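Assemble and predict.
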Amino acid sequence: MMKVKDGDLDKLGLLFERYNRPLYSFFYRKTFQSQLSEDLVQSVFERMLKYRTTYSGTGAFTTWMFSIARNAHIDHYRKEKRRKEDEILDEERIASDAPTGYMEMDERHQKKLLLEKALEQLDEDKKEVVILSRFEGLKYHEIAEIQGVTESAIKVRMFRAMKDLKQIVTTLSEEYSHE
Amino acid sequence: MSEKNEKLIADYLQGILDEQGKKEVEELIAKGDIDFIDFRAIEQLHDELDMIPVPEPSSEMSHNFYSMLEEEKGSSRVSIRETLREKIAEFLNQITMPRLAYACMLLIVGGFIGNQMNSGDAEIQQLTSEMQNMREMMMVSMLEGPSTTDRLRAVNISAKLPSVDQKAIRALLFTLNNDESINVRVQSIEALSRWGDDPIVREGIVKAIANQESEIVIISLADTMVELGLKNSANEFQRIIDEKDLNGATKLKVENTIAVLS
């Protein structure tokens, strides 16, 4: 990234090849929308170019990159919220109906679906901690830097996210089985 | 539960607890300060999160990025995105109504036979195998035909083959190396990548790099090599850079692919 900052823009291609998939997975697990995730990845690299002079090179590159990714997602969410006031992205979201054919699925498919729906319903900040820690392999102190809170707060958030997820999975499982 | 214990469990989940920390968790469970059933349920859920599937991004994401990079560099070269758009338009123009009707008919017949195969006895298994043979024969014969649309359709038929099929693999590799249509070659790469664990596929697509002239095919191969982790393709790509006069964005893409594979 330092070379990109110094004007060697071709090196951004190297960063793209290394990080486009982790970024795409990050956005996909946040939104569960393929096209939107691809657009947000593009937006992250556009921002990297735009704000390349602000890169200090002191911390881990991934921390800087996921901070940009987080902001790109927040900006998108704000725009969407303005566009569609009734869309809510937090825990107040009303649980959706049972997916078609849920009862006919085998146990593994049911579990997969429940996990996906539960992660979708998790509070945004908690969801982000789970994604960055569990899937992207970031350390708690790196996630703390991204979310602008202390490392202790992130650890508590991680535990509570897992507890909430467990509760949502149980609730959804009961709802889907009774519909 | 106290915040101290919550942080302890978070550390446990990330695998950063030392021996002392692990012992502390065990003691807290033994004393009943941490509910063992809850703890196990959270640990299990943490493991199971891997089950959530994430699809692969489309190749357009890569094209869009390199187009953006080219624009930023102030280049006046035609962007890859435009080229791709032209190729898609060219492909759509090739699809005519009778061909679409034929494709629909094949789909309906296939669907009907597929429905019949759902009851699961020996006869049905035989029918499944015959169906696979039929698909293979149809695919190979269509791949040899003069119509680009038929050849594209043939490549798509391979996606319906339920298991790794050596005849289909050989036919697709031949297509990747020899077909005159760029679209057919690109589609054959996607079809082959489904069997990316097969050693013949892995060897075949690496060898195919040297036979490509189209930059779109080269880019598609580059993405597939990264996806399948085929590190031995780096030398082939290097040769392409040395021997061919590639467009700036394509060259950059290939160079970056080599860097990632190395």
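Chain B is about 75% helix and 0% strand.
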